[in-house]
Amino acid sequence: MSTAPYDPQRPHPGRRSREVLRRATELRGRARSLLADHEQARNAVEQAVGPVRGALVGAALESMPVAELARTTSGQLRVDALEQAGLGSVGAVLRTSPEALRRLPGVSRLSADQALAAAQQLAEAAGHAISVTLDVDRQDAPSTALVLALNRLVVAGPDADRAREAATRLDRAITALLAEAAPARSRLRHTLAGSRRRTPALTAVAALHTLLAEAAADELPLLFSQAGVDLLRPSPSPAEAWIDFELRAADHYSVLDRIGGPDPDPEAATGHLPSDLVGRISGQELDRSQLRVSLRGYQAFGARFALARRRVILGDEMGLGKTVQAIAAMAHLRARGGTHFLVVCPTGVMVNWMRELERRSVLPAVRVYGDDRQDALRAWQQHGGVAVTSYGMLRSLPRPERTAALAMLVVDEAHLVKNPKTQRSQQVAEWAAGAERVLFLTGTAMENRVGEFTSLVAQLGVPPELLRDIGAVARADDFRKAVAPVYLRRNQQDVLAELPGTVRTDEWAEFSADDLSAYRAAVESRNFMAMRRAAYRHPEQSAKLVRLRELVAEAAADGLKVIVFSSFHDVLAAVGTALRDQGTPFFGPLDGSTPALDRQRLVDDFGAAPGHAVMVSQIQVGGLGLNIQAASVVILCEPQIKPSLESQAVGRVHRMGQVRRVRVHRLLAADSMDQRLVELLNRKERAFDAYARRSELAETEPEALDISEESLARQLVEDELLRLAAPA
């Protein structure tokens, strides 16, 4: 059949028009069939989520003291009589009938009605606020029904969402055009229609002809067919569905968030940016046609932020998917004609970047590293796509002006270039100057002082007046306003409500005699690093190792995986020996000597091990770029000088996709520098919060954040010398 465009002035095309109308009606039917299948799958999730949410709301109301009713009524309701009657919780009040409440001693009819109304109000609020979570260790019937319902949409994947969006648009467009084209359905109707209706009818037929051609070019009929097949696949067994949930929890929660999630907090999702800035960013279009993943709302906003503001730092807390947001921004630019993209990252996370690009998008990616880097570089220069390289390899790449126009430069773990004097920072700045857009990714934009953050912003190549505005502020609220155009940060607790919580425990141990002897010797020699690891100097007598073995044994009893972090090789060696001696399935050590490209393989092997296992890792290595959700118990062998090191390490475990509550144990020695260090670092962490996260107004001066490792070490050594020298 000819695909020449219609001319409304030409004579009525007869059979040709009827064929176009037939094909348009058929395509609309396929679109509606897909929409019906998708709606059925969504309805199944909505129905299954109700009992699970009800149980969670019920549990929350049972734990809510009845005194909350007084606060809800602004003190108008006295709850003494309710408490004396044994109704100690809001849930208990809801379980009591109005008549029974009115019969309680000391409770009037009005008080009973007020109590019930207030309890129902709290129940409704809880229903809107509570996030549905699924516990892999509690696979009851309602939770299993929900996992099975979610599985259908998870298996169908983002293509099903894309098919639904396309089907919705086509259905509306074709329905409107078919109504306009009705006179063209037959010669008789065309003749009787009159000239005022004939021309619009032929115009509508022409528009339908164009719409069909575009749909065919976009392969929408094939997309509808495949999505329909995926949505109608036979359900897996409950056991298979739970296994798939554990492997792809983030995908399941992404679907649940869109269908049965709590009312979103728009301010949290947008990083509490100024409303006028949020409005401009929200208006930024985001083409998702080259993505293989469904984005959460806050992730879509992050990608739009990078596109709209062009040169920015994405500072989301660990585990919120900064990599996916960067991929989404690049995918949009690729769909709109961008050709060349460059990702610069630490060597150890290059494998993860290549894997994520392949899994999450259709963007062609090439690793520019190793012996074949020149061939890879030429392929990228010639064909485009995403080049992934390391900081060290960046210096061997040709100068930016000899490379095709760079649509976006992505710099991962960007805090590594905060010092503008280093060669690494200068090379990144050079590439940033030649890129159309620049996106820095880092969860620790500020580790010690605001000045470091300002240096990082300068690397983006932003206008000088913005740098002046940032450098001129001294108060935390002013600082956040000044950096809003280039800095976006969201926290897990604000936007990832379904993430299981963390339970942090400081495990205090008393030095053994050998521990104390080693510690005193380290203090007397003013050896700060020896002081930090003195508790492991004699492993057979180490009090910290005794507690570590107990924690690992508890995890083994529960079938949980454990990751042990330390800064020191000899501590990791002592831990490894102790755990091997008790027959623990053991992986590692993952440290600086582990080839960078082998690090992800080691993490994968650890995750694939059945049941309980332990991996030991140097915290500087395991906390950088690797995703270790297989573990749910974290043991920190000693406190870290930089709070960000601990946060990063825990964040590699407690992140999107984690299905269990994460237990974090920090081993500390009583009456030692550990105690003083923890106090100082808690103060430092609060200062960081005032500037890098949303908080109440802080009066802290920016320079108060300047706590260098060297000065902190000197202070701690001197404090311990004085303490140990003091008479008992």
From TrEMBL:
Q: What class of enzyme is it?
A: hydrolase
Name any one GO molecular function: hydrolase activity
Q: Which UniProt keywords apply?
A: ATP-binding, Helicase, Hydrolase, Nucleotide-binding
Residues making up the signal peptide according to the UniProt record = none
Annotated Helicase C-terminal domain ranges read 547-713
Q: Which Pfam families match?
A: Helicase_C, SNF2-rel_dom
The UniProt entry, under SMART domains, shows: DEXDc, HELICc
User: Membrane-spanning residues where?
Assistant: none
Tree of life domain:
Bacteria
- Domain Helicase ATP-binding, by residue range, is 303-463
Q: Which PROSITE patterns match?
A: HELICASE_ATP_BIND_1, HELICASE_CTER
E.C. designation(s): 3.6.4.-
The name this protein carries in UniProt is DEAD/DEAH box helicase
